[in-house]
Amino acid sequence: TEGNNKAARGALVVLEGLDRSGKSSQCSRLVSYLEGQGLSAELWRFPDRTTDVGQMISAYLTNASQLDDHTIHLLFSANRWEKRSLMEEKLKSGITLIVDRYSYSGVAFSSAKGLDIEWCKAPEIGLLAPDLVAYLDISPDKAAERGGYGDERYEKLEFQKKVAEHYKVLHDASWKVVDAWQPIEDVEKQLQEIVLACVTECQKGKSLSS
Ligand code: DGP
Ligand code: NA
Ligand code: NA
User: Fold this and answer.
1) What's the total number of domains in the chain?
2) What is the distance in A from the centroid of ligand 1 to the CA of 1?
3) Which has the least CB within 10 A, 24, 114, 160, 189?
């Protein structure tokens, strides 16, 4: 078309929240929903445990290895960096990415251990900026009640309480906060509306930024 022959890009949508907030199942429901609307969408997650770096992260999370807090922080970040160019390619080709955790998890979980928050943010600078961050808000006690935690390193109530406090520090006015203690279908409906609005904005030509 005249003056604009760029294909519409996809949206970078990030879901954040505590462990057991329902993020992962909402992410897959969102992808099915978008596909049902005739849109291209993919489910992504961080950490991506399939890469070499991801396998080191997975070993750490399952307590099969021990790492210094700074070291594991940088590995989580490296895991996002190694996917950056593919992420950009997909978005530019018109695919919406629904991403289960991103830089905010990186900063919230590591600063909850006591690492300096500015130090935690630094390696995230230059990654693609999300078009939407949806925070699935649930109290740590309610999340713990919900089917309980697994055996991974961070899945403990006391630590999740600290993470919740650090997410509050990161949270800004652009985040969409969804009450994750509602029935699963209500959470799903709210997310569908928010995400569809975001995808539409991106299709209209909102530019991708770092
Ligand atoms: P998940 O696969 O979404 O259950 O994530 C595994 C655990 O790792 C979960 O407790 C959240 C935590 N996590 C995710 N991303 C990061 C990160 O970038 N840094 C740190 N320190 N922890 C993270
Ligand atoms: Na987990
Ligand atoms: Na998850």
Assistant:
1) 1
2) 43
3) 114
DSSP characters for 19-75?
A: TTSSHHHHHHHHHHHHHHTT--EEEEESS-TTSHHHHHHHHHHTTSS---HHHHHHH
Instruction: Tell me the CA–centroid distance for residue 84 and ligand 2, in Å.
Output: 22
The CB of 22 under 6 Å from ligand 1? The reply is no
Residue 108 within a domain: yes
Name the closest ligand to CA 156: 1
In a domain, 53, yes or no: yes
The answer as to whether 2 is a domain residue is: no
> Domain containing 40 — which CATH number?
3.40.50.300
Each residue's pLDDT expressed in tens, for the chain with a length of 210 residues: 444 556 799 999 999 999 999 999 999 999 999 999 999 999 999 999 999 999 999 999 999 999 999 999 999 999 999 999 999 999 999 999 999 999 999 999 999 999 999 999 999 999 999 999 999 999 999 999 987 788 899 999 999 999 999 999 999 999 999 999 999 999 999 999 999 999 999 999 899 999
List the beta bridge partners of residue 45: 100
ipTM value greater than 0.90: yes
CA 58–ligand 3 middle distance (angstroms) = 13
**Euclidean distance between CA atoms 124 and 105, whole angstroms:** 11
Decide: 105 in ligand 1 pocket, CB within 6 A. yes
